[in-house]
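Chapter review. Work through the record for Beta-ketoacyl-[acyl-carrier-protein] synthase III before attempting the end-of-chapter questions.
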Amino acid sequence: MKKASMISIAAYAPSQILTNFDLEKMVETTDEWIVKRTGIHERRIAKGESTSDLGMKAAALAIERSGLQKNEIDAIICATISPDYFCMPSTACVIADKLGLNFGITAFDINAACTGFIYLLELAKSLIESGAKKHVLIIGTEKLSSIVDWSDRATCILFGDGAGAAVIAARDDNEIIDIHTASDGSKGDLLITAAPGSVNPLSQKIIDEKLGFMQMAGREVFKIAVPTLSNDVVEILAKNKISPEQVDLFIPHQANLRIIEAVKARLEFSDEQCVLTIGKYGNTSSASIPMAINDAYESGRLKNGSLMLLDAFGGGFTWGSALLKFGGKSVN
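Structure tokens for Beta-ketoacyl-[acyl-carrier-protein] synthase III:
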């Protein structure tokens, strides 16, 4: 039976940079305060580009790098919490149209917040290994600047815009080894965009109370995220009888440097194993992991056959981890 393999990776970051010094002019904060607590120095902001525009640009490059023709893609799945439209059409359908794949292709969105890309991998793996699809394009894309309250320093310092995409295909080697996903909906109110929706339909009150923006209880999320992620990556490594030393690249969701460092220390990963992009992109939610994978790829750190360990934690709550070997061509 053919295995599912990631045969390409790509990303797109908007050109406009918003630094911590820029934020000092917008809210009561400092560069030193932001860096100390998050590790973020700057983030990208999309001007005149939608979430689907970002995703389409990453997707087009992922298809090109895969060596496939775009009409060989038979499914597009998009993870986003900042879709082009409230409920329809899906951002995946919009991206399919922008790629010229607007007839006969499966296209849909999922929402697993910052764990979105790992959920996408699990879906793509299932579709490939069941024989339902041959080439699945997965995209994590976010324009978080559109759902951030720029007067709220607790959230506006954290988030940025960007997209990452990968092609998952049926291959004989360099497979996606294992994926674990989980959730706990009882804590959903700790990281939430409360409106509009059936609980809080659109109204003037929703606008006045800014319920359409992301709201986060940062300390509570941090306390839960660190042990949850640490335990999850320990379990997936043990289940597959893989030691931390065998992992070529540890690529976590880029939410907060302190969370990453805590998990890294638990597993005793070296600096050479860990991929960090939070300093230049901030938290891009579902786009975070594929953007980090792409950074490792373009810098020559990720090569054909490299073993990656991915992990993420996000709103919902959702979390997950993945072990996979890269099946694409090396840059060098």
